[in-house]
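Researcher: Quick one. two chains, 532 residues in total.
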Amino acid sequence: MMVGLFSLVLILFMVSLVLLYQAIAAYSTGKPEQGFAFLVFSLLGLGLSTYVVSLARDRTMMAAHRGTGSVFTLIECLQCGFKSIRAFVKGDYILKQAEACPKCSRQMVITSVYLEERKR
Amino acid sequence: MLAAHPCGNRRKALLLILVSTLAETAVPSMHDLRISASSIQPLQGLFPSGENNILSVIFQALFIGLFMFTMLYGQRMQAWIMLRHIDVSVRRLRAMRDEARRISLETLKGLGKEGPDLETSLDRLLEYFWIPPVDLDPAGIVGKLEHLLDVRDDRLRGEVTRLAPGADASQLSNTENLVEATLALNTLYRIVRHLYLFGKKTMSIFIIYQLEAQLPLVVQEAEAMMGGVHAFQLGQPIGDGAGSLVAARLMFGAATRSVAKDTVASNVMLEGRRLVVLKAEGPGGNVGKPGDGLIKVLEENGGKATAIIMVDAAQKFEGEETGEVSEGIGAAIGGVGVDKFKIEETAKRYGVPLYAVVIKESSQDVLAPMKKELYKGADEAIRRVKRIISERSTVGDLVVVLGIGNTIGIGQ
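Model:
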């Protein structure tokens, strides 16, 4: 299928070049209407063939495309329900005892360490 | 799939068309016999006669020449273009491998080891391989597999301990995971590079097609491993730890005891049922030995368990959401199969039903830091586990819950 597509794109490209040549010839021999028609079809053909080639090229990389993100730590007080979110620091882990709760002074616990994705 | 000579018949047909087109331009009167005058004008317009005749003939010849070239050498040109695309991916894989290697070196230096020996030793580790046992006579193969894997793990741990003398138990496990991820990236890069160079050498369109077709998956896999490299370096919980997270939440606050290598268990009461919850020992990057742990727990209790519930991460299909939860039957555990074999064998020996609860995620999420959706999935998995326990057991029964997965960044 790829060979057929490639051949069709190449033929389209060559036909577009032929039409471009015909457009120039028509303009130079005083046939602007004919020249304009050839020019339009030529540009259409060139644009379409370039587009198809670029699509085929990008598809391979798009499948592996992935956004990056930041990791956050959620700390909760299991007594009063107070929650706090901060950037992950090396050494954080789930169910680790964290600092004292600012509301009820009980010890808080890290309940999750999660990634927030950012699309490129 | 592809025919032996895909262009053969097409070439003849195209040659016929070319000959007839040339015949039409050379003998215009033949048009009247086959096609109406109005329909040939656009064609004639492409190749006008008169004062531009010489140029038109040259252009026609050029056109036909290019056409013939495409038909005869089209495949080669396509192979060349595909090799260019593959080259881009090979460079990406190499960049990822080099980055992972740099991170591993940096981590090892930070754990006390310096000197020129460090790089040489790490490069030696990155070329490590293991040979699976022969399966011609499968009887006893699980034992052989287990032995080889234990030797491999002990050897890797010994090497990492020697390279990181300042590391504590958690850091050692995390560094081991880091080196393994780098090793995997190196192996992936070497395989893709081999196929690329082989395809380039032979210009075989079939080898190049197959490689290019698989490249998106390969690069995706490599990017997932790269996410894992960063997570292992920093000790962040990864998607594979979803099962361990469920177990950690169930056993939170209870005393833990060791039941197998890198595996802990806790006794918890839930709605009058006695739960024994097992997971790998965190927060280091361990997977533990849940098979050995289950055997020990059941032997301690005379095999009198009402149910075994396993919780693990599973691959989702395209179109499914990350964090969706499904239930089923069987041993929800990955790996080579040693632990799975032991769990199934033990469940069968004692006649204990085996239930599975899985949290779905993509292959990219497995090694990447855990997403919010997986935490919601873990909450839902806990609700499902509780429902299974209340439906499938009565007050006073023993239920064993196994949380499967790499427990990096997850304590207990």
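The two ends of chain B are 53 Å apart (CA to CA).
Researcher: Thanks, that's what I needed.
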